[in-house]
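Hi C.,

You asked whether I'd gotten around to modeling the 240-residue construct. I have! Everything is below, sequence then structure, no commentary in between.
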Amino acid sequence: MQPLAMIYNGFPLTAHVMKLQRTPLILLLIALLFGSVVLIYETQGKPRQEMAETKKGQIFGFKEEEVKALNLTTQTQKLSFVKTPAGKVEANQKQNQKQDSKPSNQTEKNLSDVPVWMMTTPQKGLAEEASIAYLLNLFATGQHQQTLTIPAAKRAEFGLDKPLAIAEVKLSNQQTHRLVLGKPNFDRSAIYAQADPPANPTGDLTVILVSMDFENAVTRPLSEWQAKEKQAGRKDNKSD
């Protein structure tokens, strides 16, 4: 008969003690395993996530007011615009129309300092400032949502072989930037594009996803690129 001191709940006391010691050991192993997972995430997983986030950013790095010329080629039309001092525009208007009253010299001087947008192609005349400002604002502040690298042979799959539009801006420092717009992605949440693509690509292409707002900005009829005053003048001439 075993001594009473060596029996606990029907089990030998030594076995019970070993069972109690095994439980903290299991908990310790679980804690070590959890700590290892956290460490791996902090050293590998989190940096990868940060790298993916850094791929998102501005398409270009210039300011809207730096742009002095804009060329836009779509599938239906080709447009060109230049920023011109208002004084020159006013001088041209005086040659073509009579004015009931003349502004003061100070007013003329102030107006001449304000640049305005003029259309040079396909027609010449004042441009619609709001339409140009909308597109240039997207150029200057637009964000690319994702960056892809594709073989040049797959350009057609992204609509880049026959672009929706090609927009080119010239800055006051003589630099130029181009944006080639392809087709929308499968759910029309973004549109494929190339920013400053090489003239003769030989390897893989860098494709970015940009806002669908670009599609709205470039697919305008000619009348929406022309100043409303000019359109009103045409209607008056027709009525006469």
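If it helps when you're writing up: The longest helix spans residues 13-54.

Thanks,
B.
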